[in-house]
Each structure stands twice: as C-alpha cells, then as structure tokens.
Design a protein that fits this description.
82% helix
Length: 114
C-alpha cells in the first residue's frame, strides 16, 4: 500500500508536471500571437531550450543518460521510482512539446539555429 508520504510525492510530481506543461503551452500560444518584440524574443529563447530538450531526449543514448541521472538523484533522496516510469514521463513531455509546437505552428527553433 502507498504511504502518505509517497502519495504526497506523487501528487507533487504530477502537479509540477501539469504546471510546467500549462506554462509551456502559454508560452507557445504567446509566441504564436505576439508581434515581434523583446517579450517575443525572450519567449523564443525559452522555446528554443524546450525544443533542444525534446531533440536531445529523442536521441536514445542521451535519453538513457538523463533517465539514469534522474534515478541517481532520486535514489540519493531515497525516492525509488522505476526507470521505465521516468522514461515514460520523459517521452510524455517530449510528445507534449511537439504537440504544442504543432498546435501553435511554432517553428522548430533548434533546427533553425543550426
């Protein structure tokens, strides 16, 4: 059975992921709607980093390294989460970023910079 502390941790993680996705979607929508300005340029740099993260996590070796680092950090804090679950969360976040890009017709900024 799940203890109260474990349940609280799961709820905090789920809430954090939901908040991060809402913030990201807000940034994508603002980027799509705003005229060229300093604010749009700031949002572009944030979206660039999100796109860079998604590109890196689509590389299986970098994804495995990131999952291992997250597992190590959580293990150090005595929070044991299966690597498969961490991988699922990473894949879900990458998919969410890609869907946000498509929904707002945001360009693949990471590809444009190379």
């Amino acid at each position: 059975m799940i203890s109260s502390n474990e349940l609280q941790t799961v709820l905090w993680v789920a809430g954090g992921l939901l908040a991060a996705n809402l913030l990201a979607m807000t940034l994508f929508v603002l980027f799509a709607k705003l005229p060229e300005s300093k604010l749009k340029e700031a949002i572009r740099s944030i979206i660039f980093e999100l796109d860079k993260f998604a590109d890196e996590m689509e590389n299986s070796q970098k994804r495995a390294t990131a999952i291992q680092k997250i597992s190590d950090i959580l293990g150090w804090r005595k929070i044991l989460i299966p690597s498969a679950l961490i991988g699922l969360i990473v894949d879900t976040e990458v998919a969410a970023i890609r869907k946000m890009q498509q929904a707002t017709d945001a360009p693949d900024l990471h590809q444009d910079k190379e």
